Amino acid sequence: MGPLDYLLAHRADVLRLTLEHVGLVAVAMLFAVACGVPLGILAARHRRLGRLALAAANAVQTVPSLALFGFLIPVPFVGGRRSWLFPALRSGADRPARNAPASSCRPPGAG
Fold first, then answer.
1. Which residues have a Cβ under 8 Å from the Cβ of 39 and sit 6 or more positions away?
2. What is the C-alpha R_g of the chain?
3. CA angle 40, 45, 47 (to 5 degrees)
4. How many angstroms separate the CA atoms of 26 and 46, rounded?
5. Residue 108 CB partners (closer than 8 Å, separation 6+)
6. What's the pLDDT score for residue 111?
7. Phi, psi (deg, nearest 5) at residue 108
8. What digits encode the pLDDT tens for the residues 38-78?
9. How far apart are the first and last CA of the chain?
10. Chain mean pLDDT for the chain
11. Distance between CA 37 and CA 45 in Å, rounded?
């Protein structure tokens, strides 16, 4: 069953879930704009507040990515498929390149 066949067979569920997703995104965007626009105006008018807001935004955006990365290192097969998390392995990056000289496949100093 291909993606189009799946969509056609489950179009009611896909439509319902799409509308639910759009609603969740709209609420999140509303909150983001309601908080961000006034804070941006204040940050533009007050230099010290602008620096503080920028530092807080940088921390909020960086920390979740680092936490997720740290979680995925010890659990490399989340989801049950290696290629889901490591697309480079699916492309063959774990094998030596074809027609490459043998010297390029050895670590430096190995001979």
1. 53
2. 24
3. 95
4. 30
5. none
6. 54
7. -60, 140
8. 999 999 999 999 999 999 888 888 877 767 666 666 555 55
9. 51
10. 76
11. 13
Helix axes 11-45, 47-72, angle to 10 degrees: 140
CA distance 56 to 50: 10
Cα–Cα distance, 67 to 60 (Å, whole number): 11
pLDDT at position 70 is 67
Q: Which residues contact 50 (CB under 8 A, 6 or more apart)?
A: 43, 44
Q: In angstroms, rounded to a whole number, what is the distance separating the alpha carbons of residues 30 and 26?
A: 6
SS3 sequence of 23-79: HHHHHHHHHHHHHHHHHHHHHHHCHHHHHHHHHHHHHHHHHHHHHHHHHHCCCCCCC
d(CA 27, CA 102): 57
